[in-house]
Amino acid sequence: MGTERNVLVTGGNRGIGRAIAEEFLAAGHRVAVTARSGEGPAGALTVRADVTDAASLDAAFTAVEAEYGPVEVVVANAGITRDTLLLRMSEDDFTEVIDTNLTGAFRTVKRASKGMLKARFGRIILISSVVGLYGSAGQVNYSASKAALVGMARSLTRELGGRGITANVVAPGFIETDMTAALPDEQQAQYKASIPAGRFASPSEVARVVTWIAGDDAGYISGAVIPVDGGLGMGH
């Protein structure tokens, strides 16, 4: 299993974030999740936080540190969508997505890095998306926020890489979640036809990549973008 770590996953109450928290728990780590509402999986410490509010994030980290000690692995997963075509996209549609998905990741990483620098160890994992580099009509805001995480991870690697801290991006494709289940059958079939693997991923398939990149075996990998997309975004 490797060394037991203190792990914090933002947006860990549902979807991919919840699966990531469950996978870390199954591997024997101490896990906390932030959630605006709802609870994380059994065995995880759930702390209330909104990634658009630095003070609430700071309080959440302080609560986790009091319970477990410094956060050693941080997974910036919290994200929102406001999908609409460019000409219909309001400035609020754009800035809200950037504030949650990109600036939220910055706030999370900045707060986590304090303890990591002291410990001279850390794993920063940013959850992006295949559309960050592949693009998607109706998602100018979302794809911009997710592409930007690549530059963030690479700059973090150059800044913190000498201190035992890695920063990587995991880029999921289509995943079986409540969101994809709600799509009409015809649309699901269309999406699957564009994926070489011919299927959507289970959330646990993304989660296992995250736990591996956080583990002892991945200490020399940093600034990487790891796609978990069944081949959808190849070459991007």
From TrEMBL:
Top-level lineage group: Bacteria
Organism: Microcella putealis
Domain Ketoreductase: 5-178
Keywords tagged on the record: Oxidoreductase
Protein name per Swiss-Prot or TrEMBL: 3-oxoacyl-[acyl-carrier-protein] reductase
GO molecular function: oxidoreductase activity
Keyword Oxidoreductase on entry: yes
Family: Belongs to the short-chain dehydrogenases/reductases (SDR) family.
SUPFAM superfamilies listed in its UniProt record: NAD(P)-binding Rossmann-fold domains (SSF51735)
